[in-house]
From TrEMBL:
Entry superkingdom: Eukaryota
Transferase keyword on record: yes
InterPro entries per record: Ub_conjugating_enzyme (IPR050113), UBC (IPR000608), UBQ-conjugating_AS (IPR023313), UBQ-conjugating_enzyme/RWD (IPR016135)
Keywords: ATP-binding, Nucleotide-binding, Transferase, Ubl conjugation pathway
Pfam families recorded: UQ_con
Family: Belongs to the ubiquitin-conjugating enzyme family.
Keyword Transferase in record: yes
UniProt-annotated catalytic positions: 117
Gene Ontology molecular function, alphabetical: ATP binding; transferase activity
Limits of the UBC core domain: 33-179
Organism: Lophiostoma macrostomum CBS 122681
Name this polypeptide is given: Ubiquitin-conjugating enzyme E2 2
Any coiled-coil regions, as ranges: none
Amino acid sequence: MALSANARSNGGGSATVAQRYGLPISLPTSNPNNITSLQKELMDIMTKPTPGVTAFPDDENMMRWTATIEGPDDTPYAGLTFKLSMAFASNYPYTAPGVLFKTPIYHPNVDFSGRICLDILKDKWSAIYNINSVLLSLQSLLGEPNVSSPLNGQAAELWDKDPAEYKRLVLARHKAPEELDA
């Protein structure tokens, strides 16, 4: 039996009581089912890689991953690689992961903080989706933005009106993954 978050935050006395009765002092950050699910997905990603996407846990933490997607051919993002962070809730796969672009990106459905407007990451999430399907959906979104529901209104407007200026802004904002780590 674990102590509640309130009991743990009440000071040193709580830890002493927990230790006296052999109770865990900290709450688990995940449950065995989602760890098993994430381990299975990692094995699938490693044994059956999908061209243009990668994803791996961060520093042995199965709840936080780093992913990359390559920009699709015949789009303003062709030849570019984008780094993303993924965070999984304790009830994954029944809750969508939190996904952010770490690479600066100019896109109608991504704001300048890297937050993404994509229905499967919000109200259309289903447990049938997995890490790979999320990354492929994001890769598809690069070439087929939803300009009727933009987070970046200027990008949505330029997407159809001025493709050359749009591409210039994409390239001006992009940084290679190795530049992000520096």
